[in-house]
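Objective 1.3, modelling of assemblies. Example input:
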Amino acid sequence: MSAPARPAAPPVRVRPERGRWRATLRLLLSSPPSLFAVLVLLAVVVVALFDEQIAPTGFNEVDVSDRLQPPGAGHWFGTDDLGRDVLSRVVLGAKVSLQVGTVAVGFSLVVGVLAGLLAGFYGRWIDAVLMRLMDVLFAFPAILLAIAVIAVLGPGTTNAMIAIGITYTPVFARVTRAAVLGVREQVFVRASRSVGASDARLLLRHVLPNALPPIIVQTSVSLAFAVLAEAALSFVGLGTQPPAPSWGRMLSEGRGYIDLAWWIAVFPGLAIVVLVLAFNLLGDGLRDVLDPQQRSALEAARHRPGRRRRAEVRR
Amino acid sequence: MSAPVLEVADLRVRLETPRGPAHVVDGLDYAVGAGETVAIVGESGSGKSVSVLALLGLLPASATVTGTASFGGRDLLAMSEAELRGVRGNGIGMVFQDPMTSLNPVLSVGRQLTEGLLAHGVVTGRAAARARAADLLADVGLPDPRGALERYPHELSGGMRQRVVIAIALAGEPRLLVADEATTALDVTVQAQIVDLVTRLQAEHGTAVVWITHDLGVVAGIADRVLVMYGGRCVEDGGVDDVFDAPAHPYTRGLLGALPARVDAQRGPGRRAPDLVAIAGTPPPPTELPRGCVFWPRCPVRGDVRCETEQPPLVRVGGTDPRPHRAATFYGREIP
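Predicted structure (tokens):
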């Protein structure tokens, strides 16, 4: 009581894990292409989330009197052969592209990573069975396999997701297996086993987190492929069905008018290019910051100017 | 000597390789008493690590392990994977060579320490596990144990990391600690600290220790008994003083002759310093072990006609009865 109340020091909780991820993010955003990719993706996500508020008209508001209008004040991206606003359809198509891309890649990610983990960790017959299965899927050209799956399931957005998901599963299985093979032999896995950790624990706590960087990169690159695949399937009429807007479908519909009204095909085409480019650039950027060797080179490059300045001051 | 904590008899490990079966461990017997330190020494590839990894079932599935290893009355080599998991960490703790690689880089020290505690039900609940983990870190002499729980392996120095590894190995209060080259990757001053630490913990907890090393200096400092391995076989074992003072096997003599400190100690007034002697040649590949004595092709003595054709048995060459000093030679003491 007599002692003066000392203000209790606030407990300092250092969270290096979060700090490390934050440092990675900062490094990622310090590279202009990655920053561009992240901004584009954020913009596309916002557009897809608020598509109905952003789009000037509904996706299927036909106004034949206003058909084939070139881009201008009334219709920024022009109108198509039925007088529908191209901008609105591009905006509304973003949701389809992103949805199909993320759901399909989510499917490949879960199934492929699980297969790769088990195959890489246990080896032997599990490895042989799972990876030969993946080889069979891998043997077909991607788009052909997707078309074959659609032929069985029937066309439609949901089936396009399943088809694309199946098509890209082997990629994840292989990437994961390769990473697991490296991590599996690390001493800390054996050390953890030597204190009695179970297989499930070894896989989820020790192997998977250390095998994550290539999987993250593959996810970004696969998203780009999935968006392209959805556009391709819709282009040939096997993906999203009319009148729902889809970039691939719009490309194919606008193809017939390319001499007369270039804007019908060019704007959805540009949208595909920009989204795919963004995913690819992000994948590149992630690979640079997640690969330890690349990363130290990047960090060194970032710190060099500062060091030089300090050296000059000393002189 | 009370009943041994671990008693290994006729341990054999065979690995299938593209060049035929490799007898990596070829008939090994030893016992470790409570609170005792047994050092297993030998060159790289002599089978010393494999011989302890085999006990805990940590070898790849392609390895064939035979023999018996009685630990607390049960045969480790006959146990199922689930039973072994109960022994790992709980009955036997392991410290690996390189603390840079034996900790998971993406998990905090606290996470890795509590893993074993929770897995074996030593404590229940996160809070209790963290408290115990902090105690363990304090026990191995880590400054600021509470703060260290939040650190990641890359934020610690090599010596501190090895302390963490030892804390993890001791978390389940094992009766036996296996240190596989635990000081090899550390620099000399840190080595000494780790050796002191293990010696202190051993005295406090009465843990038996199997210390695998190729550093005879460490052996002299900590071991009660020493077992010299060559080509997967035990070529000499006995009390550490017996073996160091009167090495019977030419290989052991070769090892001791390659030890600078010992060479120094032999230099007396009027005596020329003996040269540091290297053992010529390299160990035989485990796929092509010689028919007779494994050391025969490199042996400077080859004192018996049977050396080339017969395996010399481990025979007593000294020591006192409960702890004989044995060597696998045909000629034992007679060689000056």
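The two ends of chain B are 32 Å apart (CA to CA).
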